[in-house]
Specification:
Strand content: 15-25%
Low-confidence stretches: none
Distance between the termini: 20 Å
CATH architecture: 3-Layer(aba) Sandwich
CATH superfamily: Flavodoxin domain
CATH class: Alpha Beta
Radius of gyration: 16 Å
Largest sheet: 6 strands, parallel
Number of strands: 6
Number of domains: 1
Number of helices: 6
Shape: globular
Order of helices and strands: EHEHHEHEHEEH
Length: 198
């Protein structure tokens, strides 16, 4: 099994990046492969709502000179999807929002390529906005027919400078809870698929 962790932070070494590493460690302890993709590393163009993805129906964006289609293919090939982002201005950073907008159109009017996968969300905020960002990312997963795993407490971190996230003991428990719940759901999905193939 494989989980793709999509990091929406623009800070290469910050709380969100380190949380993604900690989350990857949790999955790998459970024998689940992970791949981390940093959205900021990819210069993604904006969606111009041309609707070519809808006309073709294949889930691919007509813009082929950036990494959008490669990222979508990685997400399609995974069993689980994690969206991780800090809260900027009350929601996710602009580069993450640009990705979500363009990916959503390709998936929702294209091939529904994430349908049935297991998803999870992690957010970080210094003071406020974490709940809004968490809701934003959760909505995106639900809209794309992903089964979103819960966690208790929620992995909604309050931290300013890295590694301040480690001091948020409740969110750290939530991170472990999320990884465990996603692992169980993915294993159940894999079992159902095996039984259907018999």
């Amino acid at each position: 099994m494989k989980v793709v962790i999509l990091n929406g932070s623009s800070r290469l070494i910050g709380n969100t990046s380190n949380i993604c590493i900690a989350l990857s460690d949790e999955f790998e302890r459970a024998g689940i492969e992970t791949e981390q993709i940093t959205v900021y590393d990819n210069e993604l163009g904006l969606c111009n709502d041309c609707r070519t993805c809808e006309m073709r129906g294949d889930g691919r964006c007509i813009i082929e000179d950036d990494d959008m289609n490669d990222i979508l293919d990685e997400m399609r090939s995974a069993d689980g999807i994690i969206l991780a982002a800090p809260a900027y201005g009350g929601s996710v950073p602009s580069n993450m929002q640009a990705f979500l907008e363009r990916a959503d159109l390709c998936l929702s009017v294209g091939d529904h390529g994430l349908r049935g996968k297991v998803g999870g969300v992690v957010t970080v905020c210094a003071h406020e906005g974490g709940e809004l960002a968490y809701g934003h990312l959760t909505f995106w997963l639900l809209r794309n027919e992903v089964s979103v795993a819960g966690a208790f407490p929620l992995p909604l971190f309050r931290a300013l400078d890295s590694p301040g996230y480690e001091k948020d003991e409740a969110a750290m428990k939530g991170l472990k809870s999320l990884a465990a719940n996603m692992s169980r759901l993915m294993e159940r999905n894999a079992g159902l698929q095996r039984s259907q193939c018999r």
